[in-house]
Every structure is written in C-alpha cells, then in structure tokens.
Amino acid sequence: MMRKLTALVAVLAAVVLAGWGAGSVEAAPAKIYLGGGSGILVLKGGNSAAACTLTTIGKSKTGKLIGITAGHCGKPGQKVYSESFQNRGQAGTITYSTSDLDIAVIEFNAAKVVPLRSVRGLTIRSIDTRPLAFPAVACKEGRTTGRTCGISWFSDGDVHFSQMCVIEGDSGSPVVVGDRLVAMVNAYYFLACLGPETGTNIGPILKRVGSLPQYGGFKPV
Questions:
Q1: Cα separation of 89 and 94, whole Å?
Q2: Where are the alpha helices (DSSP H) in 16-116?
Q3: Could you report the per-residue pLDDT of 202-213, keeping only the tens digit for each?
C-alpha cells in the first residue's frame, strides 16, 4: 500500500558559510525529529516517492539508530526523508526489506535524527509482544488518517485483523493498545476504512530485526 508523490522532494545538500578573512564556519546540522507515527518519504527515483509511516525508532546494541516501517514501502539502498522536515536533508537509508513479514529497516543518521517516543497524540511507553486479538481495542497513528481506533478481530500469531480505518500512506503505522506498541499496519481489504485492516504483530517484527547481526538487541525508545 503505497502512495506515489509527484511533488519534488527538497534536498538540502550542504550549507557553506564563508567569512571575509576569518576562515569558514561550519553550521551544525539541522535536526530531524522522528518517532512512531511520523510520516516518511522513500525516494523511488526522479521526483517520485512513496509516503509511509514510521512504526518505531530506537538503537541496536551496536549503537545504530534504526527505525521500522512496512516492507512494501521501499527496498534496500533507497533514501528516506522525513515528510515534515524534507528541507533538512536525507534522514536515513533502507537497509533491509522482506515480503514475508512485510517489514523494512531504516538506518538513520544519528547526527541528524532525534528519536521521539511521542508523535502527535500517540506515546509509546512499552512493548507488548503478545498477539493482538479479540476483543482488544487497538489504535494507530498514521501520516494519512491520523489516529483511528477499532476492535481487533483475531490474530494467527504473526498477523492480525482489526476494524481500524487505514488508507494509503498509513502503511507502517504503529498499532497500540493504550500506550503499549503491539503491531504495525500493512494493508486493508476491500474498501479503505470500511474493510478490515491487517498488519504484523510486534513480536515477530522484533524477533526478525534482532536476528540481523548489525541490529541485534534493538530496543525502541
């Protein structure tokens, strides 16, 4: 579930300040603020990008700052920008993407990106790896439809089905019960906001990310 953007993504490559007879002054990089629920843009080539939502962000035991989103949002090597801070340059690069769980890993520039626990009305205070199941009421924060909630119908362990409203661009949205991160959004069936939402539970996601040697020990903020 991707949304093609044809608008030009502004890229700020560098800022050079020159002084008369005083040498040069290097400006500190402008910060980019990202957390679960933030809108992101994945460059596809030319002026085209996919709009998706960040599930969560945190650090691995090796100190790498990484984030998670839906796998169909992009492929390894593609550049990622913050939708809200496009003019502050590239935020990161997709380094891993898989279709079986439909998840992708983004490695962020830790010198520029500030990880957030709260985005708009959503705050993630803990992780719950139990499968999302009936009759829990789950909510998500997406870059397209914002915060929506709905009853959880059932789960087979890896994936879940709920009645949350989602449309294109909400892929990757964090799914929470209260302030506990339980899953991500991946798709909907039949009709947007009417058909059921489906996504991947956070347990299998964290297990897969933790199995990658460079990202072992990943912990969301």
A1: 15
A2: none
A3: 999 999 999 999
